[in-house]
Every structure is written in structure tokens, then in C-alpha cells.
Input
Amino acid sequence: QVQLVESGGGLVQAGGSLRLSCAASGSISIMVMSWYRQVPGKQRELVAVITSGGSTNYANSVKGRFTISRDNAKSNVYLQMNSLKPEDTAVYYCRADAGLYAYWGQGTQVTVSS
Output
């Protein structure tokens, strides 16, 4: 079992940047890692994903603004968020996929003021 802990959320003005971190309790080298976000009353949505080989994919709404990366040696995954918009406001969750199992963190709040 893998435990995930997100950090780095907070309040930022529109146009600003934040870097989210996700620390895993075990090795993530063979896992697909992703970031999701959720606002109250809406479904959780995929923001970005990075495979074990380093391939990435992004939601259209964040392409060109967000960058996902991973450091397998540290068992960390990051989400660099630039040019933030008020509509990016959400709780951001880290997810690890290992075959049949998926693990979630507890989430970190990101609030972007206009």
C-alpha cells in the first residue's frame, strides 16, 4: 500500500504560480502518477498524468500552463502551475496507479483570486 501526501496549495492571485508536491510512502517508479482536481458539486477531473516512462498528458484547460514531473528517487510527483486562473480553484489530488490498485492523497486546496 502507498500513502500519498500533497502539499503546496494555497491562495494566489490570478496570473500567479504554485507548485504542488505529492510525496509517496513507497516506490513509485513503476506507477502511473496523476493529478486530479475537484470543486464542490462537480466530478473529480483529470488534470495531468505522467507514465513510468515519463510521457505526459494534460487536460485541454491546463495545456501550456501546467507541467507534471516526477522524481522517482525521491518518490515525489510535482505539478507546476503557471498563469493561474480563478477557474483553477479546486482541491487538487494526487493519484498513483499500480495495476489493479489506485491510491489517493487527501488533497490540497488551491484558491485563485481574481
Q: What stands out?
A: Residues 48 and 75 are 17 Å apart (CA to CA). The first strand starts at residue 4 and ends at 7. The chain has no helices and eleven strands. The chain has a mean pLDDT of 97.
